[in-house]
Amino acid sequence: MKTLLKLLLAVCIFAAGIFTSRFLWPEKVASTAQAPVAKLFQGATKRSSGMNNTKEGKVIEVRNGESIQQAVTKAAPGDLIRVYPGTYKETVYIDKDGITIQGVIIKDEWPTLEGDKKLNDAFLYSGNNFTVENFRIQNFKGNGIMGQGGNNYVLRNNWIINAGVYGIFPEFGTNGLIEHNILTGIEDAAIYVGMCDNIDVRHNQVYGNVAGIEIENSRHALVEDNYTYDNAGGILAFITPGLPVKTAYDIIIRNNYVLNNNHVNFGAAGSIVSQLPAGSGVIVMAADDVIIENNFISGNNNSGITITDHKYGANLSNDPESDPNPDRIQILDNFMTDNGNKPIDRVKALMATQMSTKGPDILAVGGGSGSCIRDKNRYRSFGLDNYSQCMMASTDSIISYLLAKPLESPVVSGEMKGKMAFYGVCSGCHAFSVRMVGPPTITIQALYKDNPQGIADYINKPTHKRADYPEMPPQNYLTPETRVAVAKFMLSVTK
Ligand code: HEC
After folding, report:
1. Counting atoms of ligand 1 from 1, which one is nearest the CA of 455?
2. CA of 438 to the centre of ligand 1 (A)
3. Are the C-beta atoms of 99 and 56 separated by less than 8 Å?
4. For the chain, percent of residues with pLDDT exceeding 90
5. CA dist list (Å): 477 to 72, 244, 304, 350, 358
6. pLDDT in tens, 280-332
């Protein structure tokens, strides 16, 4: 398995660089976002890998007043849906392969998905080879763009404002490109890569969120040329215990601006991210083989870079299957200045042991082995005693972690589709034993015992049954097969 991964990696490295990238910054944003990034990393776009899903089908146009979902229902794999400026109040579900949804921006007029703080998600996809670009997405309660299991995705040039818990959240997807998006006002991670492989996250601007960019339980991720500022935490590489995928490794964080991430943490009480100390630049928790290189990390009041194990991360569930320690972290050359101006008490106490009143540029706490740093003495640091001098000078040979060829669409069993639809859609409103937006799953199990078809029929065209609950939105975008599969899955869950 390991050799296979190495082979894939080698293939990626050779294949990259032959693409060019389109720079689609909207005019308004260019002045704030593009300028500093371009100055420090000239030539960065030359190295941009890019990825374009082929559009070989028909073009379907959607104009103000029409429905994007109806266009998706009509579309076949390979089709391009072009959406003209206007305000669209809907959740768009994409459960077929090869769909591209492209906003048409005319003189700074964007097509806008408006959630009015009533709708949960803007785009929810499970199909492979999905592209969404050029949208303004605002005021959703759950997620801006969420993926469940789709591979080969491109999420590009979207402007995501106050979109709830996660701004861009691909989950269980291999081979994805997230670039040139702008995200703000997100209550958890603005860009949240969860349980994915082979991901490039580049040229995004994230500010005013709880966490800027989070790579969680994912592997082979490149986080590059992003501009993260004024979040509570800038860039995170985490293993979160208790999830079905147990590892996070081979993550490169390079050429990013990580500035003044001192926003108050407004994460939902009880969430892991709400424990994040405001003032954190880059945080690595339990992830392995993370390389941090050539970032500009400045003005983060608690610490510039924090490397921690699970013991120090508060509120985590105990998961014997995931290794709690960050191993083989490599901190190469980074430009770090003015971090640690107002550390949290715990960090202050640590720094006091070395007579410093300021917080550190780099803080390492807890277990882990095999880590290294270049020129340790350049930085104000704590806990780097067992870090050796790094031998590697740079990661220049790695241009992208995208696969040279899109992954073949896997044959997904009906059962798997049901599971993915359940966790992707239903679990947002139905918890197992407590009331959320909808009644608890155990209540539904009691009502529909041995009758999955009954559930499948209900969700296709829900009727309003309970006066003390809102109406359930119809799930008629799911194919009849998936509706039955999700019903069966709902009847089988036990927690
Ligand atoms: C946006 C929130 C939301 C989502 C998403 C959602 N539901 Fe519901 N669901 C509700 C609400 C609210 C009710 C209660 C409606 C009522 O009683 O009028 C409900 C009720 C139900 C019921 C009870 C029907 C009955 O006869 O009493 C079933 C079954 C159900 N949902 C299944 C599902 C499945 C399966 C999914 C995922 C495909 C799903 N729901 C997604 C909010 C949601």
Report:
1. 29
2. 6
3. no
4. 71
5. 9, 27, 45, 54, 55
6. 999 999 999 999 999 999 999 999 999 999 988 766 767 888 899 999 999 99
Distance in Å, CA 413 to ligand 1 centroid? 24
The answer to whether 261 and 232 have CB atoms below 8 angstroms apart is yes
Residues 6+ apart with CB under 8 A from 456: 480, 483, 484, 486, 487
Give, using CA atoms, the residue closest to atom 24 of ligand 1.
Answer: 458
Pocket, ligand 1, Cβ cutoff 6 A: 120, 421, 425-426, 428-430, 437-439, 444, 447-448, 455, 458-459, 464-466, 469-473, 475, 486-487, 490
Q: How far is the CA of 468 from the centre of ligand 1 (A)?
A: 13
Query: Are the C-beta atoms of 311 and 355 separated by less than 8 Å?
Result: no
| Residue type at 378 in one-letter notation | R
Q: Model confidence over 208-235: pLDDT tens digits?
A: 999 999 999 999 999 999 999 999 999 9
Structure tokens at 279: 């003032």
List the residue whose alpha carbon is closest to atom 26 of ligand 1. 458
